[in-house]
Amino acid sequence: MATAEEYAKMSDAEKKKEDWMNAKWRPMMGWMYMVVCTADFVLFPVLWSIVQVWGGGEVKTQWSPITLQGAGLFHMAMGAVLGLAAWGRTQEKMAGANNGGIQAPGATPTPSFGASTPSFGAPSPTPSFGSAAPSKPSFGSATPSFGSAPAPVAMSASGKPMPVLQDDREL
How far apart are CA 112 and CA 115, in angstroms? Predict the structure, then answer.
């Protein structure tokens, strides 16, 4: 992986060296699925009815969507492909792949399980279930514990930090 200095020295042609298919396959899959669904559920039923009216004067049979044949396996497979592609791209962005592999300034930290502070840009280690549990705030105690390690940052599914709940009770 290139450092920030190496990346800055690279020419624009070197930065764009990635093959177009590797860079564009996810959007192409989405566009292809959208076109197939539009054709199978909008365009083909209308054309099917028009052809029947021209051929015999009345619509006798209804269009049966091709993609629903075989219990809709096409839609389940495309849902899996697009879902995993979106999840994979999210992981790449969180790791800094959105800008050539260099962590963007002010990027959201990736929580590291078992550590007292979140690590920035580093992959999260697998949680060790035998390690000490993260510290939890005690809202009922008379004296707050200011010397304890900060609690890990709670992250939402989109990778953004979740708001911290405040206790309004008096101590």
Answer: 6
- Is 82 part of any domain? yes
Number of structural domains the chain divides into: 1
Q: Domain span at residue 83?
A: 18-99
State pLDDT tens for residues 100-144. 545 555 555 555 455 454 445 555 555 555 555 555 555 554 555
Instruction: Name the β-bridge partners of 155.
Output: 161
In a domain, 162, yes or no: no
Q: Token pair of 158, please?
A: 């989109």
Q: What is the pTM assigned to this prediction?
A: 0.47
pLDDT recorded at residue 9: 73
CA 27 – CA 38 distance, rounded (Å): 16
| DSSP output for 70-133 | TTTHHHHHHHHHHHHHHHHHHHHHHHTGGGTTPPPTTPPPBP-TT-SS-BSSSPPPPPPTTSPP
Query: By CB neighbour count within 10 A (0-12 exposed, 13-18 middle, 19+ buried), where does 115 fall?
Result: middle
